[in-house]
Here is the input.
Amino acid sequence: MSVPAPMPPALLRPSRLSPESDKREHLLAAAARVLVRDGTAGLRIRDVALEAGVSTGVVHYYFGSKDEILVEALRWATRAPIQRFAELRRGGDHLTALAALLEVSLPHPGVLFDEYVLWLEFWSTVSHDASLLPLCEELATAYGNQVAALVNEGTASGAFHPVTDPDTVAVRLIAMVDGLSFRSVVGYSWMPLDRVRDLLCAFACEQLGIEPDALPQVRLDRGEPLQ
Amino acid sequence: MSVPAPMPPALLRPSRLSPESDKREHLLAAAARVLVRDGTAGLRIRDVALEAGVSTGVVHYYFGSKDEILVEALRWATRAPIQRFAELRRGGDHLTALAALLEVSLPHPGVLFDEYVLWLEFWSTVSHDASLLPLCEELATAYGNQVAALVNEGTASGAFHPVTDPDTVAVRLIAMVDGLSFRSVVGYSWMPLDRVRDLLCAFACEQLGIEPDALPQVRLDRGEPLQ
Amino acid sequence: MSVPAPMPPALLRPSRLSPESDKREHLLAAAARVLVRDGTAGLRIRDVALEAGVSTGVVHYYFGSKDEILVEALRWATRAPIQRFAELRRGGDHLTALAALLEVSLPHPGVLFDEYVLWLEFWSTVSHDASLLPLCEELATAYGNQVAALVNEGTASGAFHPVTDPDTVAVRLIAMVDGLSFRSVVGYSWMPLDRVRDLLCAFACEQLGIEPDALPQVRLDRGEPLQ
Amino acid sequence: MSVPAPMPPALLRPSRLSPESDKREHLLAAAARVLVRDGTAGLRIRDVALEAGVSTGVVHYYFGSKDEILVEALRWATRAPIQRFAELRRGGDHLTALAALLEVSLPHPGVLFDEYVLWLEFWSTVSHDASLLPLCEELATAYGNQVAALVNEGTASGAFHPVTDPDTVAVRLIAMVDGLSFRSVVGYSWMPLDRVRDLLCAFACEQLGIEPDALPQVRLDRGEPLQ
DNA sequence: GATGAATGAGAATTCATTCAT
DNA sequence: AATGAATGAATTCTCATTCAT
Here is the structure.
């Protein structure tokens, strides 16, 4: 079984034919790409403009200041994952939903990897400037609620048999996903993607009382363009 | 039972009476404090000099460039935890060592909190510039080895009864510590320090087959100046 | 006795129903208002367009450059006073004409005040760029001639008995009007409008050999909208 | 009789050998010269730096922003006249003091002319931004007090016989000085320096009840370098 | 060694002007 | 004619780095 590319829209990769609809979003995507590549400290308006294929003036035409586009880009780029998880939960049984959720939580090369990099930037930014904390917390809560709902529903339906109360297990899962994935994203050689997957699946099965073989094999094909 | 302040040396707090011997270290400490406060993106030589109580010229006298002091400061500030863990493991039985290790892994206000902020900066920096990856990986490995050694030794001695192989449990513990602590450091209101501790202790006990009551109560006194 | 509002046309105040006939004048009026508010240094095409309720493109459609609209606006806005004085001299005896002229020379809140602000801009501009000097001098001469003609005619008719030759008195009157009015316009608390009037009337009477009581009491009604 | 150059210090002209004492003042003088030449609207940091013979960074090193140096330059450059008048009043009898005061009130080419240009800038600036009004008013009051004191003392001593109360005459003198001088500064061909002097002396004599021949002939030599 | 004034390259920002629609 | 998005040159401002003292 394989999960479809999580998002059709051109998210973090350049789009040649940007619709006239939203130039602002085009710029945010460009800024997000620059952020992934250079980080908050390395973001320059010139680079955002270059990446978006426009002049620097345009960036200031749509955004008041460098700070504004930086914040907006973080806000914009980190909204995607939540939607993705919500969609995944809709279709299929709880076991399949769990497997899919774990798979799209891995830092696959492409958007998913990039999103982890951006989250690192986001957290790092927030730890020095609390003004973004509310947004950050809101996004994190939305994500946590998705996982908690899945665990709770799966437990109620008899699909999961958590080792302790469902909410605690949900928090553990979230923390474990980050704890493992970030190490992979940073580039630790002893934490390649496959190891993150193995550790994560085994952990989830243990915490949710699932037979390892009962968890459907779900893979995002590497070759599949993630946009 | 209580753990002593982990480190006598002036780590991240200003020291009035810096010995003439090591001005370089004095500057690194100042840089680390500025990094904690302003982040990599906000670090300015002027601020480091101000924090250290010297002129900007001095910073350049001891360090070739801004980049050098930034890297050196990260390197310098992130060495402490490893030493700390090594020391903690030396004295006492495995249960006590575990309890102490967990306690000093929490982002207590003060140095411990600051070290998490710096790790966030470190990871964020490395994710955009792999030149620091070897150092980062080395430090992480040293830390991982400490935990793995403790789990293995405790298992061999019969103090721990891990739910799966000891190395896997060690990795899980490390990932869980970060996954929970970072959320607390970033400022999520639903992840205060005490919740991190509770979740972590319960998790460690479960993974290591320890009766919750058997884990010694270890606290870092709040009043104790962490220097 | 009271002087009618000196000018029916929408001079410096926004006009809702601008005739299609003269868009150019509509833009000049908008530019003049912006000049009064922000000064030459603060004038931006964008603000002129905003004030006129059009796009920036329109401004460039009617005027070649920022410099052109600035100069045209000064030229346009400073023509009004001359016409005004000419009209005032036509009706009535010399004493009444003098009283009316003095009254409309005061920086009453509204157009008259604004015109002084623009003159200040004009002079300040000319003192750095002599290319506007001919226009400036021409306007000033026209104004001076009006005053001189009034003094001369009044003297010839026996209404005035100047303390020295009529032309000198005319120059003195002009200089005194500015010297007092500018201080009021700038905002000196010790030179409110009423003091300017008192000083000016007394001075004019003294210089022209008029009994103070002989000068008709002329007032611009405050309630009267100056447009 | 001739008045010595009012000010030994290098005021508005470039000084090659600036004392180490006050670089800030050196920059203000440069800014004032640029203001005289180009006006508020034309002032550029680059030009100030060029005029001062330093790099643009220096200007920002001593002044926070363009606005700050502009305001400081106006403040600095307009202090001089007051001191000058105070000094002139000290020596000699009232008639001589009056003659000297009138002479240094004329817009002689050099500093005196430049000061009028700056006052025009000052007034124009204040008319759009009242934040400078207190300073402006303070300076104007100090100047007014000097003139009023001279008129009052001269009247008390019997040297002057004003046509009306001394304070009114003082205000008239001040207003006349500006009203005539500004026209000359702006460049009106019919108001050259000599005509300003003639009109002013005649007016002062008339208002103060002095025989025209009784006013000492005081001249600032054109050739004399005003610095 | 230490200072901090000075430099100047480079980044952010502004805004007149253009031009496709 | 009108629009307003886009341009890009010009300007302000920042800050690592240098260097005379």
Summary: The first helix of chain A runs from residue 23 to 42. Residues 157 and 221 of chain A are 30 Å apart (CA to CA). Residues 5-21, 223-227 of chain A have pLDDT under 50 and may be disordered. Chains A and D do not touch (no CB pair under 8 Å).
